[in-house]
Design goal:
Number of strands: 14
Radius of gyration: 19 Å
Structural class: alpha/beta
Strand content: 15-25%
Strand order of the largest sheet: 3-4-2-1-5-6-7-12
Helix content: 40-55%
Distance between the termini: 41 Å
């Protein structure tokens, strides 16, 4: 049974990836520090679905076995920045594969809290790379972001586009991850494959992102802020498609020593059209307040997914209408509406 470390396992994508890998028969070790960037109750609820209850998940640096999956899933509450405890974990499990999804997320939050991003996204990522080097891990898949493209007129975004002008610190930290991964791959023969995620949404999603924010406001008759007067487009990508692509890149043999892949739907959706889909599923009209553009934001995202398709057969299947329908169904069940 191959062992896989999934960092950020209490997060949106990490939680779904753990479920997928467990079902495929892998021994999965989940790691997360359960920070308070957004509602920790949602993080604990995700972990409980994986068989780790809050009273265990809240204890630092102690490994717990899943009540649901036994030895196929274990969890540890740990900071990636911990240079003492992280190597102990690597030594204990001799991991075959690493998927690093742990990060301080959020473009706007990074403008006001830069130190948190450097600690987690740069120092934490360096620790992962160092552990891969010292404990002979041969393959690392890690999360980058579409935000590295910054403001560009080159549409759709292709991996070879210039990404030297990030417009938020979050984007800068993700760009730094790509450079650090290249260096470690070159120096130490570690296969490093980065995924530039494009606006992931779906059940168990992050409450700081548009789908959850909008759904909450619409259902509670509150105003929703629509930035740049609604003249924004996003490459919304449903979580199941993201997990399929991530899993295939992680577990299959990929003939690239170091590379970057876009992972999106490649069908940008206007923000107002996305809101309209939510209104239809919730059967409530949103109270929209048009706002100017925000610092650190971009006008449009659109992923070229040709490279990921070439190497993994990636083929997103869920369109925005069916994706929003599935999201709203989960949202109502989770919040008991």
């Amino acid at each position: 049974m191959k062992s896989v470390l999934v960092t950020g396992s209490a997060g949106f994508i990490g939680f779904h990836l753990c479920k997928k890998l467990i079902n495929l028969g892998y021994q999965v070790i989940g790691l997360d520090n359960i920070n308070e960037y957004y509602d920790i109750n949602l993080k604990y609820a995700r972990l409980s679905k994986l068989g780790i209850l809050e009273e265990k998940a809240s204890i630092k640096n102690k490994l717990f076995v899943s009540d649901n999956h036994g030895d196929k899933f274990k969890f540890i509450n740990m900071n990636l920045e911990d240079r003492n405890e992280l190597p102990v974990l690597f030594k204990k499990f001799n991991f075959d594969l690493i998927c690093n999804l742990a990060a301080q997320a959020g473009v706007r939050y990074s403008i006001e809290n830069p130190d948190v991003y450097v600690d987690t996204n740069i120092v934490g990522f360096l620790n992962i790379l160092e552990c891969c080097r010292k404990y002979n891990v041969k393959k690392l898949v890690y999360a980058s972001s579409s935000s590295v493209y910054g403001i560009t007129d080159e549409i759709p975004f292709i991996e070879e586009n210039n990404t030297d002008n990030p417009i938020s610190l979050y984007a800068a930290t993700k760009k730094s991850n790509e450079l650090m991964a290249f260096t470690y791959s070159h120096l130490y023969n570690i296969q490093t494959l980065g995924l530039r995620f494009f606006t992931v949404y779906g059940p168990w999603g992050r409450p700081d992102m548009a789908p959850m924010l909008f759904a909450d406001s619409i259902l509670n008759n509150k105003n929703i802020n629509v930035f740049n007067e609604g003249n924004l487009s996003r490459d919304f990508t449903y979580i199941d498609d993201i997990i399929e692509g991530t899993t295939n890149l992680l577990i299959n043999k990929i003939d690239k020593q170091n590379d970057i892949f876009n992972i999106g739907c490649s069908q940008p959706v206007k923000l107002l059209d996305f809101i309209r889909c939510l209104e239809e599923e919730l059967e409530i009209n949103a109270k929209k307040i048009m706002r100017p553009m925000q610092k650190g934001d971009v006008y449009k995202t659109w992923a070229s997914i040709k490279k990921l398709k070439k190497y993994t057969g990636y083929n997103p299947k869920i369109n925005i209408k069916s994706g929003v329908k599935k999201f709203v169904k989960w949202y109502k069940e989770y919040y008991e509406l």
